[in-house]
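User: Here's a structure from my thesis project, written as structure tokens. My advisor, Dr. K., wants to see whether a designed sequence matches the one we expressed. Can you design one independently, without my sequence as a hint?
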């Protein structure tokens, strides 16, 4: 079964049309599906329309967030309620074309774990949407080591086990290719259509670039050091201690042979204590972070990679 998750924020005019288009596509595919609308703190009648659809069609689920929490929180709420083996995410403003769903699902059936929709012929503004988007794609490709032309597309398909255990916050929904690749997922892109927004206004712009950059740095830290934070803090601590020792030796030599240099011996002694103290502090921070990371892993028991049964294991179970 396919779970289609659609975050909604003040998209009242689009709800019924989105439902009709998605239902028509799956009717042609003859494939079971569920449609999960997540109302992200809408102030119009969006949720009332979703409730009406849910009352008429058991395949529709309605989730409501009392205040606007952002797309990552909305998607996380949808992931938690999804029952399908395949999960599709798309926007509710009718800019994503449901007729591209068969192409996304066909790629999943080929054996890929995640399919992102490559938006073609976008009509967005160059400076407020296209330029920030291209910069974001370039940065994420360098940080994640994943070659993709459109990282930030929210139109995509995933195997459910790829998303298991992932926590989304901030703008981490844009990091899904990066997070999935780190877990060993096979990723592919499929060209998808793009339509101009018929109702409402876009919630994104150039102002979201700085929060995205900060989230990118956070995601990079979690991927590289969350399981072993001492590898980061320990290196910084080692550099601090070594620099403190080097400065201390230089100050000692200068006090004996009177060649302390421009800074003077007192300044060198202060600098030595600063480096050495910073190094020790980093070491202690690493120890604390290491204990927290291990406690978190033991409590939740999450695997850093995608775990699937092999054919041999299934035969043994039989």
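Assistant: Designed independently from the structure alone:
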């Amino acid at each position: 079964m396919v779970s289609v998750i659609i975050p909604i924020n003040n998209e009242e005019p689009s709800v019924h049309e989105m439902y009709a288009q998605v239902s028509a596509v799956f009717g042609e595919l003859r494939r079971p599906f569920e449609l999960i609308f997540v109302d992200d703190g809408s102030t119009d009648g969006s949720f009332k329309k979703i409730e009406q659809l849910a009352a008429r069609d058991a395949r529709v689920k309605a989730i409501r967030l009392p205040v606007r929490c952002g797309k990552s929180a909305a998607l996380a709420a949808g992931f938690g309620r999804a029952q399908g083996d395949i999960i599709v995410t798309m926007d509710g403003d009718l800019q994503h074309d449901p007729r591209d769903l068969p192409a996304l699902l066909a790629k999943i059936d080929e054996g890929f774990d995640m399919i992102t929709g490559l938006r073609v012929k976008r009509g967005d503004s160059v400076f407020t949407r296209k330029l920030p988007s291209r910069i974001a794609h370039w940065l994420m490709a360098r940080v994640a080591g994943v070659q993709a032309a459109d990282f930030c597309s929210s139109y995509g398909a995933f195997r459910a086990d790829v998303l298991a255990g992932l926590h989304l916050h901030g703008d981490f929904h844009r990091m899904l290719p990066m997070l999935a690749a780190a877990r060993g997922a096979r990723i592919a892109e499929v060209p998808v259509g793009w339509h101009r927004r018929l109702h409402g206004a876009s919630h994104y712009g150039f102002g979201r670039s700085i929060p995205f950059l900060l989230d990118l740095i956070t995601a990079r830290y979690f991927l590289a050091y969350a399981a072993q934070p001492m590898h980061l803090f320990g290196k910084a601590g080692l550099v601090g201690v070594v620099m403190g020792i080097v400065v201390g030796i230089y100050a000692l030599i200068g006090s004996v042979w009177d060649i302390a240099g421009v800074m003077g011996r007192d300044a060198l002694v202060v600098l030595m204590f600063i480096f050495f103290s910073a190094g020790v502090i980093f070491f202690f921070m690493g120890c604390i972070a290491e204990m927290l990371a291990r406690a978190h892993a033991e409590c939740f028991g999450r695997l850093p990679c995608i775990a699937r049964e092999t054919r041999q294991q299934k035969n043994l179970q039989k």
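When you compare it with your expressed construct, this may help: The chain has two domains: 2-225, 230-300.
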